[in-house]
Fold:
Amino acid sequence: MTLVAIVATSVSMFAQSPWSMQNVGYNYTSSYPFDIDAVDSNIVWNCAGVGDGSGISTQEFSMTMDGGNNWMAGLVTADTNFRFSNISAITENMCYAAMYNNTLGGGGIFKTTDMGATWTQLGVGSIYTNAASFPNVVYFTDSLNGWTMGDPVGGYFEIYSTTDGGATWTRLPQANITAPVAGEYGIVNDFTVVGNKIWFGTNKGRVYISYDGGINWTAKSVVSNVNTVSSIAFRDTLNGVCTKSTTAGVNTFFRTTDGGITWAQITPVGPAFYSDLAYVPGTSVLFSCAASSTGRGSSYSADDGNTWILVDTNGIGTADGYTSMDWISPLTGWAGGFSADPLTDGIYRYTGSAVGINQLVKNNVVSAFPNPTNGLVRINTSYEGNVNVRVFDILGNLVSSFESYSTKIGLPVDLRNLSSGVYSVQVMDMNGMTSIVKIVKQ
Structure:
């Protein structure tokens, strides 16, 4: 079966919108999740922007510990001129936030360890102290190790790292970072991470790439230096898609197959949206969404952005579309909406069928035997070297994981302690290449 045929068969999966409305809890009407960071199928954090055109700053955030059945909202204790750049969630208790001062310049990194009840600004007096400083991103791989990127100050991008949870920060030396071109700066929350590789976009049509977890950075051009790389997503260490936007609001797609070194323009067929792009982990499915005058709704592509299938054009409680996304598995993801009041709307959970499973089980990269199984199953894979194996239940919860050296003999997976049902086994190699096989446990 060809890829086009596979995509066509999945249209019926979205006969009705797969997004189920939840109540994010924001107090300010028309606030929306500017950034969503899901830790797992239960723990999710988000931070707010304001969509009513007033231009006010907001410090509202919200989090859930039960998959979104209940959301708890609060405020980051920061200067009233501070706005969110993004968040990086670690556990139900711990979350980091990057914020910029919309009036005076500068900004800071904030941290909570008590579910958002209190927030502490980190590195006061040592990071983002210049009036020209502008933090765009903060990202932590765990509770201790993280980095943050801000606009150029002193002739190069302000990039810091920490190994003690933000207690101390070290700025990368200028020699480690490709010099910015005149007038170049980063974009808030415009980055993506796969394993040890990181990409972020700039307003001059370039993507900065780190191959070593943020220690060294090189810049590659996507398009002419008068366009902004406004959204970027990678499904593995080589294959990615980004959009560029002009000041007139014209958007264009580009794709790379060599990790961002070179980019080629693509012309999407079907309803592609430009506000946010996100690959669904463990699949080759790319979702897009938007909530602006250039497009409102969500769609997906199974061929790296060439063709797009419409999911819907608005959420249940709004006609404004979706602002941002985060996915943790083929069954579990969230998209931002606009809050009507503290008890109505603001965020949506994906409740549709498993995304991408039908496409991936038809490839030859992985297979399972016996399937169905009474508990013990062997995964055959063509991947070589170390691989990570993760097992998800039908709700998208991670129920088992391990690392193994792949051989053509196969990988043993033990499901005997799990209940009967359908499970998805994800196999990822060292380069981030990923495939999934669906298994029925009897």
In short: Residues 1-13, 357-364 have pLDDT under 50 and may be disordered. The two ends are 28 Å apart (CA to CA). The CA atoms of residues 50 and 56 lie 7 Å apart. The domain at 361-441 is CATH 2.60.40.3760 (Immunoglobulin-like).
